[in-house]
Amino acid sequence: MKPLYALLFSLLATLAFAADQQPGPNDPRIELADGRVLYPKQMRREKDTIIATLETPPPSTAPVGTPAQRADVGFALKDIFRLVFPKPDAINTAPALIASGKAEAALAQLDPILKYYTGFRDAPGSWWVDAVPLQIQALLALKRDKEAVDIAESFARLASDEEIKKLSLAFTAVARTRKGEHEAALPLYDEAAKATKRIDILGLIAVNRGDSLVAIGDALKAKGELNKSAVRYEQALLSYLRIPALYPGQRMYLPQATYGAARAYLGIEDFDRALVSIKELRENFAATSEAKATDELEVRVKKRREQLADPNKPAS
Amino acid sequence: MTRRGHISTISFAIAFAALALPPTIYSQAASGVQGASGVGLPDSRAVKLAQLYNGGMQFFEGQKYQEAITRLEDFLGQLTPDEISKRPLVYLVLGECYYGLGGDVNFTKAITAYWMEFIRRWPADPKVVEVKGAIAQTYMKMKKWEKSIEWWAQVEQMSKDVLPMREHALSGQAYCYRQLKLADEEVPVLERLVYPDFNSQESAEGAVRLMALYALEHDPADAKTMEFADKAIGLLKKLQMKIHLVENFIALNGIAIKLGDQLLDVNAYPKALEAYWAVRNREVVLQMQKSRVKGMEAAMDQNIKGAGKDPVAYNKALRMNEDAIKPRLEEAKKILASFEKLPDFMPSLYFRMARCHTDMNKKWEAIVVFNQILEDYPKSSVRELVIFSRLALYSDLGIAERSYTLCDEYLKEYPNGPHAGQVAYTKGLTAMKKKEWVVGEKYFEEALRILATLPEDQKKLYWTEARYQLANARFLQNKFDVAKKDFTEFTGEFGAIAGGKGAFMEDAEYQLALCHLFTGHYAKDPDKAAEGYGAIERLQAYLAKWGEKSGYGSDAKYRLGVCRFAAYENDLCVKECEEWLAAYGADPKELLQPEVYSLLGDAHAALKHPAEAATAYIESYKRATTDEVLTYALFEAGKQLQKAGDWEGIEKLYTEFVKTRAEHPAAVTAIYWVGKAKAKLGKLEEAKELVIETLKKYIADPKRESVEMMLSQLAEWARRRPVMKVSDAPAPKWDADAELERMLKPLAENANITAEARLIYARGEMGRISRAPEKRVAAIAEIAEKTKPEDLSPHLLMEVGDYVLAKGEVDRAETLFRTLKENFPKSERLDAGWVGLGDVQFARKDYKKAMELYTFAIDRLGAPWKLKEALIGQAKCDVEAAADEKDKAAATTRLEKAKKTFEEVASVREWRGESTALALYHIAEIQARMGKYPEATQAFERLAASQGKYPLWVARAYLGAAEGYYRQGKNEEAKKKLTDLISPRDADGNVDEKKMEKFKDLPELEKARKRLLELGGTV
Q: In whole angstroms, what separates CA B929 from the centre of its chain?
């Protein structure tokens, strides 16, 4: 560690400098690709250009009281390293609200953010890309699948940035899952997962891919293709468990993941683990729709377990 | 903000003094001069003082401290005390100058001569707190940590409401304590800095340090210190939320890993995971650090660009860059460079996370993590370990197929890997856990081959286990001869290790004794010395070596009894059982008690001691822990009581059972026996009542298998005329059907489809008992028509399945038998499902599949209901297979085998009936196929003479005999045989009308006519 006093000096110096010369760290700014940083008073997007209202301070030689000048300046998206907006609180609070069964409240908080940032869409630094998965997850938590599908498809349409377009694959896949087009959704999830390292998107992929795999597993089981269905259930399980094992911070996906894991455990006939998942869901996410759905699932798990323990029981 | 305003808000900070103070001093000096000039002309003292002051300040600004000191001390020396009292700033600047000169002497001078003097002279000055801070800071520079702490404590006290200054003071104290290695003192200071919250870079750095100290305080050996781990985790989480405040997140990452490791060491898995989850991966950290470097570089550029052409602003920006940003930039680049040189920690971190999951019994989560390592870091140093650990988890989870594949993949990639032996062994063990003994045998054979190629130290780790398990796999497949050889070799190879008590030796010796038992080699035969000891000697040797209380002690003793029983030494068996009961009977945990009592019952039964046998069986059923033993002992007890003529005993036995185990599946059968006993005891009406009441409860439930038996019993009872009082009047005609209907009436109320089918069945049973089999067939046909398979009980599925198959409705029969097989896998009649499906496949000419199904029914299910049909099925399959054999010798072998099976069927007294005729026909047919026409002809003739009750087989026998004669060149005999079938005659040569009637509708008659014409006969 460097000497503390050196740190103290530099700290005070930095504070002094910042206080005297620069806007605060929470002020929106544009970081240009050439290294310049600008602090616009306002910003908006017009096609692939960000229009910034900039204020130019008077030179030090100017008479005291000379007002700053304002002008709208356009910057092509390609010239922008990123836009820096303060992180909206709802981006932090919505996941917890969704996980605690308050998805309506999450949607209410996200609404103004989505309205504001939809203008910027996928401009680098826009919070739109972060807000949309939350909105979709909130809608799914409320079982408003149709709206979630619309949002997912609209994301795919609106994205123009190549990187973001790759993310839109995940949303397209989610839409497919929700429409019941499970086989078609799977390759999209795989491609989308390769295209991003964003854990919010990877979380979205994990749980919805799991849902598709369970649905495929159920269909195969109904057809009597037990070996094939077991493979799908196992894949589903490994997909769902990415949330608690790899992205535990993505709490909003945990109810869906835990519920899905319980279904997959039922599929592979690991009843104890299925019941543990149900218990976890009830204890940790009691207010969620997934927790409420566990009653029916628990009955299915116990029935199947009893049936295997007492094979004379006719299959339900 | 104006420059003056800025100065008033910026504290008197040593490093900043050079930037902030000089203009102020200028202005003060100027005002002093102006003040003097305002009184009159400038006098020489005032001019000199102004020159000294301004010169001093200029030198100070130019960092020429010695020159500044000379002038300012001269300046002070010329002032009057009153003038001095108005010049506090000069003391501050002089202190700063001495500080700037460096060295302990100058630092001391700065502190004692000027800053402490400032505090003494102007104690109420608002800058006192900053001066104290400067003193504390200077003591730090002098490494006088205790003194520095004293001054920082004063600053802390004075700056309660000024957060930056307070944080500064606390950071200073903490730093000093750290230098003094007084962690116990440092912690509370940092706690004052960090709690309740931290929102600056300085306090965030304190939080990082405090987290590290908490981690150190946590002693894995002392559970009480877990609270420190909790506190550390709490801070870690908070720091994650405020990562933008953390100067050195690489250090933070390191602390998180260390904290996780400590927690992992004490098995605090969830907490360890929380720590690990806080670690950012290498790429992210690199990216953050690069961004940080880039950000600082951008800030420096921005400072210079922002200053434009203003020389003062430019100078200020330059100093800011040089003094404040550049050192941090250098430091950040250094950290980045050393971090880039480090190997990626993520694979091993993930591995530790997986270990946490595994130890929390979250094996699937661990697999997810392992998959991630292999996906993200396919060539990491932990790859081999990850692949091995993952397959071990799959094996633990019982996902056998995946485990086998992963084992193969491991062995392909690491044929000589450090876990190669263990993997080969695990593959076999996985199969054993799944009870896939055949696969287990194969894999342990492979494992032994692999182990043999490995270095001795690796080989020996699993060699013994694999050797034992191979024998065990064969033992569990009932391959007792091979297993016997394996165990013998095993005990030979490892018998000398650990005084003959090495690993698996006890199991091997015991199982070897059992191999002898199960192959019927009970005792040493003096005439066959080569066979060595039999089961009895081996079990006795086992007990002598390992003791009665050894792992298999009680089992060995029980098996000794079994050996005696099997060897027909029933007295000795009774003795062994009694000894067993004396040795182990008092132990309530002894699980073999029911088996031993059953064996005792069997021995007594064999000795024809029905009362003793019944007593033993009753003890057995009362102690039974499995349904198999309970059912066996309960009904054997009943049989023995029946033999003893003890119907009261039977009534009591089953009544007690029904009362205590009303929900047991055998309760219905027990009630049947209670009813039967009551009927025997002359309480027929009571018996009927009891059975009807029972049926009311169970008739609608297809799982209750004894319902059909009770309905048959009711039908039989319905035929019995009640005992009438002696009277001269003739007894009225007894209407059995009406009586049955009377009894069925309460059962018909609210009957579901299952109950309705059963009521039809009961009426059909009346037909069977009344020698009107067509009524029974009609009843089964009615059930077949009215019900769906899922509504039928196992018995009715069997009956209806047989019926529709006989009608040629193969697909429908398959559905019925499949329902029986799949919905009632524990049914007593399960074998009927398998045999029925065998018949279905036979009808479809898939003889191979049919043979598999018949064989399963016999070998695996014991075919309690359909053994005869299964044997016939097997034999018929062999006949068909022989026809398809191209190799004549193989075909003959098949036919011999089939013949033997048919002979077995024909020889069983209990099976006498149409199946005997069928078997005899096939025996003759096989001989014909083998070209043994005289033997075949004789066999057909015998059949025709002995099985007159079964015209179909008689007719076929006539045809067969005719063909036999023809093949022997005896055309006349052949024609006579055919004529006998077409126009049978009695001994007097008259047409045998009875035979004519029996044969008239058979298709064989037409065949006979056709064949007779072919042979030149006349019809």
A: 55
Our CA angle for B719, B722, B725, nearest 5°, is 150
Q: How far is CA B165 from CA A5, B119, B127, B153, in A?
A: 13, 18, 12, 11
| The pair of three-digit structure tokens given for residue A199, joined into one six-digit string | 């854990």
**B633-651 mean pLDDT:** 93
DSSP state of B181: T
* Residues A24/A33, Cβ–Cβ less than 8 Å: no
Confidence of residue B538 (pLDDT cuts 50, 70, 90): very high
Q: Which residue has the tokens 């096989």?
A: B926
Question: What are the pLDDT digits (tens) for B559-587?
Answer: 999 999 988 899 999 999 999 999 999 98
Strand partners, A69: A56
- CA dist A222 and B1006 (Å) reads 51
Contact predicate B790/B820, CB 8 Å: no
Task: Provide the pLDDT for residue A26.
Answer: 63
How far apart CA B610 and CA B643 sit, in angstroms, is 7
Q: Does B627 touch chain A (CB under 8 A)?
A: no
CA distance B30 to B38: 12
Out of B244, B297, B323, the one facing A13 most closely (by C-beta) is B323
Tens digits of residue pLDDT in B341-395: 888 899 999 999 999 999 999 999 999 999 999 999 999 999 999 999 999 999 9
What percentage of residues in chain A have a pLDDT greater than 90? 36
Task: Report residue B316 as tokens.
Answer: 């200020």
> Where does residue B277 rank: exposed (0-12), middle (13-18), buried (19+ CB within 10 A)?
buried
pLDDT score, position A232? 97
B368, B793, B818: best to mutate for the A interface, most A CBs within 10 A: B368
| DSSP letters for B9-44 | HS---HHHHHHHHHHHHHHHHHHHHHHHHHHSSPPH
**Residue B103: what residue type?**
G
The separation between CA B863 and the C-alpha centre of its own chain, rounded to angstroms, equals: 33
User: CA angle, B635 as apex, B631 and B636 as ends, to 5°?
Assistant: 110
CA atoms of B772 and B775, how far apart (whole Å)? 6
Residue B358: both structure tokens together: 């595994």
Is the bond preceding B984 in cis, omega lying within 30 degrees of 0?
no
Residue bearing tokens 């002359």: B682
Q: Name every chain B residue with its beta carbon within 8 A of the beta carbon of A7.
A: 202, 205, 247
Residues in contact with A261: Cβ distance below 8 Å, sequence separation at least 6, in sequence order: A210, A237, A240, A241, A273, A277, B364
- Whether A287 and A280 have beta carbons less than 8 Å apart is answered as no
Residues of B in contact with A237 (CB under 8 A): 364
Q: Which residue type, as a one-letter code, is found at position B688?
A: K
Which residues, other chains included, contact B895 with Cβ-Cβ below 8 Å and sequence gap of 6+?
B878, B879, B882, B926, B929, B930
Per-residue pLDDT, B271? 87
pLDDT in tens, B833-874: 999 999 999 999 999 999 999 999 998 888 888 999 999 999
Beta bridge partners of B985: B991
- The minimal CB distance from B790 to the residues A14, A241, A314 is found for A314
Among candidates B236, B218, B226, B227, which has minimal Cα distance to B275? B236
Any A CB within 8 A of B205 CB: yes
Residue A238: closest CA among chain B residues belongs to which residue? Answer: B368
Neighbours of A48 (CB within 10 A): 11
CA B474 to CA B480: how far, in whole Å?
7
How confident is the model over B275-289, as pLDDT tens digits? 999 888 888 888 888
In A13-116, where do the E strands start and end?
Answer: 29-32, 37-38, 42-46, 49-56, 69-76, 80-84
Per the model's pLDDT, the better-predicted residue between B750 and B955 turns out to be B955
- Which ipTM did the prediction report? 0.80
CA atoms within 13 A on the CB side of A268: 25
